[in-house]
């Protein structure tokens, strides 16, 4: 399984144009055979060596995220932060599959687990408010 599932096979199998060039345009400067490449710099992702431009062994693709397969997002825990993520992530990320995993039978995290008869809240409750619909 590739970390880049939507790249074409020719990109995934791309080889450096220069056999002495390692992935990401880096050279093994410590290797005696590569001593001539010691003065390497990079500009905009394209490796330069001693003033001569070398073709990068990779290609960056500029593709909108909504054109790709859905991003799978997992939130562990449905406590205060988990509920917040479950609301905000779909608002901010298009084309995502969100799943929230919770060990308890209900949401609330610590407040679900630690319920005391007659106790309403042990700290000022205004601290635990979301601002999803400010008025």
Descriptive report:
Helices cover 16% and strands 16% of the residues. It is an alpha+beta fold and 135 residues long. It folds into two domains: 9-53, no CATH class; 65-116, no CATH class. The protein is elongated, with a radius of gyration of 25 Å. This is FAD/NAD(P)-binding domain-containing protein.
- Between the first and last Cα atoms, what is the distance in angstroms? 47 Å
Q: Which structural class should the secondary elements be placed in?
A: alpha+beta
Secondary structure: helix percent: 10-25%
Name the assembly state: single chain
Mean pLDDT: 70
Number of spatially distinct domains: 2
Number of E-state strands: 5
Low-confidence parts lasting 5 or more residues at pLDDT below 50? 34-41
Helix-strand pattern, N to C?
A: HEEEEHEH
The main sheet orders its strands as 1-2-3
Q: What is the approximate shape?
A: elongated
From the alpha-carbon coordinates, what is the Rg to the nearest angstrom?
A: 25 Å
**Helical stretch count?**
3
Biased composition (Basic and acidic residues): 26-35
Protein name: FAD/NAD(P)-binding domain-containing protein
Region (Disordered): 1-35
Pfam family, one: NAD_binding_8
Task: Identify the notable features of this structure and list them briefly.
FAD-bind_Monooxygenase_sf, 16% helix, alpha+beta, FAD/NAD-bd_sf, 3 helices, 135 residues, three-stranded antiparallel β-sheet, FAD/NAD(P)-binding domain-containing protein, two-stranded parallel sheet
């Amino acid at each position: 399984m590739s970390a880049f599932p939507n790249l074409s096979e020719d990109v995934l199998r791309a080889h450096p144009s220069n056999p002495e060039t390692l992935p990401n345009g880096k050279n093994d400067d410590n290797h005696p055979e590569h001593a001539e490449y010691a003065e390497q710099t990079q500009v905009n992702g394209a490796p330069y060596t001693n003033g001569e431009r070398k073709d990068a062994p990779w290609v960056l693709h500029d593709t909108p995220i909504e054109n790709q397969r859905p991003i799978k997002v997992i939130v562990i825990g449905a406590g205060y932060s988990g509920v917040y993520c479950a609301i905000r992530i779909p608002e901010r990320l298009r084309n995502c599959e969100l799943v929230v995993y919770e060990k308890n039978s209900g949401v609330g995290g610590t407040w679900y687990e630690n319920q005391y008869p007659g106790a309403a809240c042990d700290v000022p409750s205004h601290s635990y408010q979301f601002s999803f619909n400010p008025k």
